Amino acid sequence: MKESPTILIAPDSFKESLSARKVCLAIQRGMQKVYPEAAFILSPMADGGEGTLDAVVMSAGGVKKQLNVRDPLGRSVLAHYGIIEASKTGIIEMATASGLELLKLSERDPAIASTYGTGQLIKQCLADGMRTILIGVGGSATNDGGRGMAEALGIRFLDRNGQLLPNGVSSLRQLAKIDVSKLDPRVAETTFIIATDVDNPLCGPYGASVVFGPQKGADKKLVQELDNALHQYGELIRQNLGKDVLSLKGAGAAGGLAAGLVAFTNATIKNGAEIVMTYTDLAEKMQQADLCLTGEGKLDDQSKAGKVPVAVASLAARYDVPVIALAGSITAENAALYQEGFTSVFSIQSGVTELETAMQQTDANLERASENIARILRL
Hints:
With 379 residues, the protein is of the alpha/beta class.
């Protein structure tokens, strides 16, 4: 590598440890010890989950705003969203309103958790004049198919007697009609983009309830009830609205919020990492770089399914930029990772350490590992 290289740092967050921006700074500190003359381009990344709001707003010159909304259990919580005035784009990270992070372990209950607060954020973006809304759907506490979001926008869910369904996902088993007559008219004038890193369907063995329900507090019995309810929901969406969300790839994201957005808006589901790369102009930054460093907390077989490091490596390959990945742990085969475009991959751990301790040391470990990589490159 040349004496005064341009180094692009574009990692995801290390979940529950460091934000993507802090990961960038730790890597930069390590590299600067060996390459003090280098030019650094810091580009925190995300895949639709944690960090999406900050990554897009910071790169696109937007501003963050806040709004009191309902949390998954109906309590008031201060949530954040972003607006990019120049392009009339709103940025929502649904977890700030409807995320698992808002609940204690004992409070997790996907039978009653609602996406209503996410709908309130959408409504506020509409009121702010945004006509494109990007919604990152990672980290949800919900399994309501986006019902709460839809209710916040004016949609009514009725039983066979024309009565409003009671709260709770299970009541969707009694769903007989979806009344969209009072849907906020601004929705039709707005483009919705769903950013996600999963492609699970709404229902079935790989659906929202079965795959993600247990981590949100569902036991086996409740998982089946939730799956049945979402299947009824999907059938009524097809009958009432002519949209087949039951066979839609990715509809199960965020407990089916993706299905609800597709059903009630003109939303399209897209790979979250690629969407964030577009909004952050990562291709332009990559063309300036002599080296790229990326990473996330864990590189595993799931990383190949649209996660940030693989998306960054794929982009780097287009411009013949070497790319190095750093991770807290690496369980995927190196050969498989190299096939994805990585020049090399490194674990930041220096020895056997308990997970809690390792997470507390992430900042220092990233800095040390980056310095070691830089010393090899300096040779």
